Amino acid sequence: MRRSYLCGYDKLTQTSYEHRRDWVEKRLKQIANVFCIDVCAYAIMSNHYHLVLHINTEQANRLSEHEVIQRWITLHRAPVLIQRFLEGETSTEAEKNACLAIIRTWRERLCSISWFMRLLNQYIANEA
Fold this sequence. Notes:
single chain; alpha+beta; 2 domains; two-stranded antiparallel sheet; two-stranded antiparallel ribbon; 4 strands; 15% strand; DNA binding; Transposase_17_sf; transposase activity; Transposase
């Protein structure tokens, strides 16, 4: 059995991991502000957490292309092509179509629980 504490107190090693609870809460709020996913409830236990989420597809569909980009690049680096799109420097139809395809993908991801959880879990793993 692996002894892994997300937060709480490990009596065996007498180590407190309670500070990690704040990491989870802050990252959860940050991701929820970016994604079109509402956090209805959550509980953080010593070795796992529970989330109740609502996917807000209507909100995602109402976002403009620029809003989708701004939300996504809050958590990720923007590819050069998207940077050029934001600056109005995409000159060919192929570049514009490539940007629109990227934006469509990002819009879908902003409603994806898998991507939401991926970003939350990666952050926790990197910090721990």
